[in-house]
Design goal:
Blueprint (H helix, E strand, L loop, with lengths): L12 E3 L5 E3 L7 E6 L6 H12 L1 H6 L2 E7 L3 H10 L5 E4 L4 H6 L3 E2 L3 E2 L2 E5 L5 E6 L4 H16 L2
Helix pairs in contact: 1-5
GO molecular function: thioredoxin peroxidase activity
Family: Belongs to the peroxiredoxin family. BCP/PrxQ subfamily.
Catalytic activity: a hydroperoxide + [thioredoxin]-dithiol = an alcohol + [thioredoxin]-disulfide + H2O
Length: 152
């Protein structure tokens, strides 16, 4: 079952691009932009990840951390992050356990979907953006939501 706005973000622990375990619970007290993407080093995923990279300091100044998740290995993530100078955490979700936990669907049942969750500092889902082809929209929409959260 897919999670929705207002739900508590399901906790998980996954390895990052350096092989270290990362637990979502450790980010409580800080907003998190959690984006699921299909595959490292593919055109759409590179465009999306580089858009997050290009706005990373804006996310940080808004009090948020950016975390990307795909089914690729930690080694693949490390190469991807190095090649494109991605300054944020990439997590390896082998077997799509966390993707399924969040209900992040696949396109035509084959290709892992592209979906972004904005999680507030209390661990609640504030916004969900689901678009396979609007790569920069994931970044733009997440920033709008974060700016709205800060002005409240």
């Amino acid at each position: 079952m897919a999670i929705k706005v207002g739900d508590t973000a399901p906790d998980f622990t996954l390895p990052n691009q350096n092989g270290a375990s990362v637990n979502l619970q450790n980010y409580r007290g800080k907003a998190v932009v959690l984006y699921f993407y299909p595959k490292d080093d593919t055109p759409g995923c590179t465009a999306e990840s580089c858009a997050f990279r290009d706005q990373y300091e804006v996310f940080k100044s808004a009090g948020a951390e950016v975390i990307g998740i795909s089914g690729d290995s930690s080694e693949s993530h490390q190469k991807f992050a190095t090649k494109y100078q991605l300054p944020f955490t990439l997590l390896s979700d082998k077997g799509d356990t966390v993707r399924n936990l969040y209900g992040a669907k696949t396109m035509m049942g084959l290709v892992p979907g592209r979906i972004t969750y904005v999680i507030d500092d209390n661990g609640k889902i504030k916004y969900i953006f689901d678009s396979m082809f609007n790569f920069k929209g994931h970044v733009e929409e997440a920033l709008k939501v974060l700016q709205g959260m800060r002005s409240q």
